[in-house]
Amino acid sequence: MRRGPLRIGSDRGLPRLGEFDLELALTQLVGPIVFAKLIGIEHATPADCVRIVDDFLAARAAS
Question: Cβ(22)–Cβ(30) under 8 Å?
Fold first, then answer.
């Protein structure tokens, strides 16, 4: 069951993410989209964004 958006600073988001640097988190989340746009290799689809966020959350859980 998928819930609504997980907001970084929300009551649901903070326990899941633990301590983090907001600027670094934004760089990790937005960086791949900006990079792809800058070099013109592709446009980020909603599925791409879901994958980026899932990868980010998995990396946070592993650390």
Answer: no
